[in-house]
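By way of example, we now present a protein record of this kind:
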Amino acid sequence: MLPEAEPTEPTPPEIHSLEELVMAGYRFVTLPYVFSVLVLSIRKNMGNVYLVKIGDWPMRELFRAACVSALFGWWGFPFGFAYTILSLWHLWHGGRDMTWRVLEQSQGRKEAKRIMAAAPKVKLPATIWWVRLVILIPVAALVIVYFRIAPDL
């Protein structure tokens, strides 16, 4: 009989329900981004819905979504600018938290409200500032360009 191989990654705790999952500090998160070309603005999510433990955000995907939106989201007319602001707002806060919607669909509105009220609060990791820097650079550039051009108009 061969010895069993040891798992290389720690296994998640034994969880039997969505309520236990949320109470253990997990969240369902999507990472929106915008890609625009002239009159076409595409709003999508980077991957599907991520199940993340509070503090263990998918930073690589967050960074990619912020880069795509910050560089290519603004250029669509008429909605590219508005969609980009909304996308960057969600990314600034670590992605769009879909936990409420998942709980509401599976448990009902009243039960979802009770679970979310008792759930631990979201704490973003310190590395989120890299994503926020990617968001701030193009916004600052747009503000500088606006104030350089606007006084001449």
